[in-house]
Amino acid sequence: MMTSVDTDLIRVLADPLRLRIVTLLAHETLCTTHLVEETGARQTNLSNHLKVLREAGVVETEPCGRFTYYRLRPDVIATLAGQFTELAATARTTVDTGRKRSC
Questions:
Q1: According to the model, what pLDDT value does residue 4 have?
Q2: pLDDT-derived band of residue 31, with 50, 70 and 90 as boundaries?
Q3: Fewest CB atoms less than 10 Å from the CB: which of 23, 44, 49, 84?
Q4: With bands split at pLDDT 50, 70 and 90, how would you rate the model's confidence at 100?
Q5: Is 18 helix (H, G, I), strand (E, B) or coil?
Q6: What value does the CA radius of gyration of the chain take, rounded to a whole number of Å?
Q7: What is the 3 state secondary structure string of 19-70?
Q8: Phi-psi category of 40—alpha, beta or left, where left has phi over 0 and alpha has psi -120 to 50?
Q9: Which residues contact 60 (CB under 8 A, 6 or more apart)?
Q10: Could you tell me if 59 and 53 are in contact, meaning their C-beta atoms sit under 8 angstroms apart?
Q11: pTM score
Q12: pLDDT band at 99 (very low <50, low <70, confident <90, very high)
């Protein structure tokens, strides 16, 4: 069975600031103002990163008056983690069986 990992999602999460945002949102739902305070990033830069995370389906928004709150979609992270788990299991099987392609 061929196991693949969502490379687009990995690229999205590979950025240090986006990974920091995801880590913060894993602990609580936050608005942009909170994220600016926590990360020290400029609001425009942060908004661009949040847009990427939203378009990738990693976060969802909740309007609240003049503010927009962001929350992590744990199912997306769990799916990615599951893909890595399957990849690790395939690698273990390959190592255990000594499978090697001849030249």
A1: 67
A2: very high
A3: 44
A4: confident
A5: helix
A6: 18
A7: HHHHHHHHHCCEEHHHHHHHHCCCHHHHHHHHHHHHHCCCEEEEEECCEEEE
A8: left
A9: 54, 70, 71, 73
A10: yes
A11: 0.84
A12: confident
Q: Which residue has the higher pLDDT, 7 or 15?
A: 15
Q: Determine phi and psi for 38, rounding to 5 degrees.
A: -75, -35
Q: Which of 74, 61, 62, 67 is nearest to 22 (CA)?
A: 74
Long-range contacts for 93-98 (Cβ within 8 Å, ≥24 apart)?
none
- Within 8 A by CB and 6+ apart from 83, the residues are 3, 4, 5, 6
- Rounded Cα gap, residues 25 and 59, in angstroms: 8
Residue 3's CB is within 10 A of a number of other CB atoms, namely 13
State whether the Cα torsion 87-89-95-100 is positive or negative: negative
